[in-house]
Design a protein that fits this description.
With 257 residues, the chain is an alpha/beta fold. The protein has a single domain, classed as NAD(P)-binding Rossmann-like Domain (Rossmann fold, 3-Layer(aba) Sandwich), CATH 3.40.50. 51% of the residues lie in helices and 14% in strands. It is built from nine helices and nine strands. The protein binds NADP nicotinamide-adenine-dinucleotide phosphate (NAP). The site of NADP nicotinamide-adenine-dinucleotide phosphate (NAP) has 30 residues, from helix 1, helix 4 and helix 6. This is Short-chain dehydrogenase.
């Protein structure tokens, strides 16, 4: 299969690229940093197409799609994995932070969809995949920007699923819990049921061939979040405030051990 994957220079994307390449696929990889992508290409000779790009930049994405089209007649799967997470300090609410996170997590995905859909349409079994987040199942403290970007990404994918069904293009939204990556290494709070990037990549790669609408994991963690979200509104707020207090205490313990 011919697969394009974004955010392949570190974390989940890098582990997923390695897994897909080990499974024998041809993988085109993108991220801003070219060096880790070149290393990947060196490890899997003849299987990797290196396409570095800043995916928030429209002309870079257009150029990327043109190069991809030059090398491949069709694209079987596009995996929108590139993303970022920054936490909001509500005492100093910053619109710029939200704008940056939304641009990286939502607008870049939308740009890639615009430019890669024509190539996906040429495949007999086109498959569009996005990495969302379990944060969309329960509003978490300080996640205003990240949660909003991933909730919007969820709606975008769900709506696209309906519209692309007539063209037999499958749409999968992946919503993972915590994964040990450079992104979460900055987190100053406990991350229950955290998986390694390799475990998460194996799980995703195993599920993708069935083209499911959703891949949510770890299952127990997701079930807890969904259950919490079904609590009466007042209780849901109390749980959120409890988590928020804990997050502040953890942060303060780290700053003043
Ligand atoms: N880690 C978790 O617990 C977790 C949980 C749920 C969902 N996720 C999602 O999983 C995805 C991967 O995250 P991760 O944890 O693996 O983080 P990561 O290690 O920081 O990887 C993020 C990737 O996105 C790329 N990227 C960021 N901005 C980009 C841009 N403007 N243009 C092109 N590439 C860009 C980065 O590459 P460059 O810096 O080289 O550009 C990097 O390869 C994200 O969408 C994240 O929201 C992660």
């Amino acid at each position: 299969m011919k697969i394009w994957l974004s955010g392949a220079s570190s974390g989940l994307g890098l582990a997923l690229a390695r897994q897909l390449l080990s499974d024998g696929h041809q993988v085109a990889v993108s991220a801003r940093r070219a060096e880790p992508l070149q290393t990947l290409a060196g490890d899997f000779p003849g299987q990797v197409l290196v396409l570095p790009a800043d995916l928030t930049d429209a002309s870079s994405v257009a150029q990327l799609a043109q190069t991809l089209q030059h090398h491949w007649a069709q694209l079987d799967m596009a995996i929108l994995n590139a993303g970022t997470c920054e936490y909001m300090d509500v005492q100093h609410y910053q619109h710029a932070l939200l704008e940056h996170v939304v641009r990286t997590n939502l607008f870049s995905a939308s740009l890639c969809i615009e430019h890669l859909l024509p190539l996906l349409r040429r495949s007999a079994h086109g498959h569009l995949v996005a990495i969302g987040s379990s944060a969309t199942f329960f509003p978490l403290p300080r996640a205003e920007a990240y949660g909003a970007s991933k909730a919007a990404l969820r709606y975008l994918m769900e709506s696209l699923r309906v519209d692309l069904a007539a063209e037999h293009i499958a749409v999968t939204l992946v919503s993972p819990g915590f994964i040990d990556t450079p992104l979460t290494a900055q987190n100053d709070f406990p991350m229950p049921m955290q998986l390694t990037a390799e475990q998460a990549a194996r799980h995703i790669a195993r599920r993708l061939p069935a083209q499911p609408q959703e891949i949510n994991f770890p299952r127990v963690f997701i079930a807890i979040l969904k259950l919490l979200n079904h609590l009466p509104a007042a209780l849901r707020l109390a749980v959120g405030q409890y988590l928020s207090r804990n997050a502040k205490e953890d942060q303060s313990n780290k700053e003043h051990p």
